[in-house]
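in:
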């Protein structure tokens, strides 16, 4: 049976490094895995009125329902994100908030999660990854252990065709995907 991995890219820009890294990383999953980017660009800003049973005149947007159902049907989630102002991009936080409701049916609950962060600087998105881990810890999402993936100076990692140029980085990412796949298998 094919396992489904939802890949969440913490950037809306078509040509973002996070998106390029995500597209490349998807190819590292083994046979029997279907890893697909789940777009978050059209998710309306989170508003609890949509999920408040006492607010009858404001139904949840269809985009919320579709996103939540996609995540719940996943066997795991891989986040690939940049760092914006020392934290996660607003679009990613919005998606996390949408998946966190309603309280009785949280989409993220207990799903294995992988995190790849990057930055154009040397820190590799350290702050964004730590902030994302903090948000996800609330949902009991298991993650692979060490080493974590912080890709520094990301523009230097991608060649003109959008591929990861360094064989060492490819091997590092392949190892991370392999460890993430083992985690998904353990939680199946």
């Amino acid at each position: 049976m094919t396992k489904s991995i939802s890949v969440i890219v913490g950037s809306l820009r078509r040509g973002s490094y996070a998106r390029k890294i995500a597209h490349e990383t998807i190819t590292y999953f083994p046979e029997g895995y279907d890893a697909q980017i789940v777009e978050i660009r059209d998710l309306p800003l989170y508003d609890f009125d949509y999920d408040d049973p006492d607010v009858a005149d404001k139904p949840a947007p269809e985009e919320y329902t579709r996103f939540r159902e996609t995540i719940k049907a996943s066997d795991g989630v891989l986040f690939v994100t940049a760092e914006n102002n020392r934290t996660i991009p607003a679009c990613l936080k919005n998606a996390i908030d949408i998946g966190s409701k309603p309280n009785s049916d949280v989409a993220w609950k207990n799903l294995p999660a992988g995190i790849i962060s990057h930055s154009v600087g040397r820190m590799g998105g350290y702050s964004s990854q730590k902030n994302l881990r903090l948000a996800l810890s609330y949902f009991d999402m298991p993650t692979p252990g060490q080493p974590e993936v912080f890709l520094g100076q990301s523009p230097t990692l991608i060649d003109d065709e959008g591929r990861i140029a360094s064989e060492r980085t490819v091997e590092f990412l392949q190892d991370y995907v392999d460890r993430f796949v083992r985690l998904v298998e353990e939680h199946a």
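note: Strands lie at 3-10, 33-37, 76-81, 113-118, 149-151.
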